[in-house]
Specification:
It contains two helices and three strands, in the order E-H-E-H-E. The longest helix has 16 residues. Strands 2-1-3 form a three-stranded antiparallel sheet, covered by helices on one side. It has one domain: Mth169, Chain: A. The radius of gyration is 16 Å and the shape is elongated. It has about 80 residues and is an alpha+beta fold.
Length: about 80
């Protein structure tokens, strides 16, 4: 089973990389880019066979290590 964790900065948190991406895209001639936000994706291979147990375990991993919940949000997808 695989878990995919999508992490993004919360709205209102300054995203310097997102600003740099938006600026670079505009500089390259991509018209209409008014902003960008940068995040990360974490893939975790799990031995767990129960989807809900896997989801709970990954949420615990996120809360304890993978995500700074003060400034980031996350979403977990479980692929059985």
């Amino acid at each position: 089973m695989k878990a995919i964790v999508y992490v993004a900065l919360k709205p209102g948190v300054l995203d310097a990389q997102g600003k740099a991406i938006a600026s670079a895209l505009t500089d390259l001639g991509f018209v209409g880019v008014v902003g960008a936000r940068q995040g990360k994706v974490i893939e975790i291979d799990l031995a767990e066979t129960d989807v809900e147990a896997a989801r709970a375990r990954v949420h615990e991993m996120c809360d304890r290590l993978l995500v700074n919940t003060v400034i980031e949000t996350y979403r977990v997808d479980i692929i059985a």
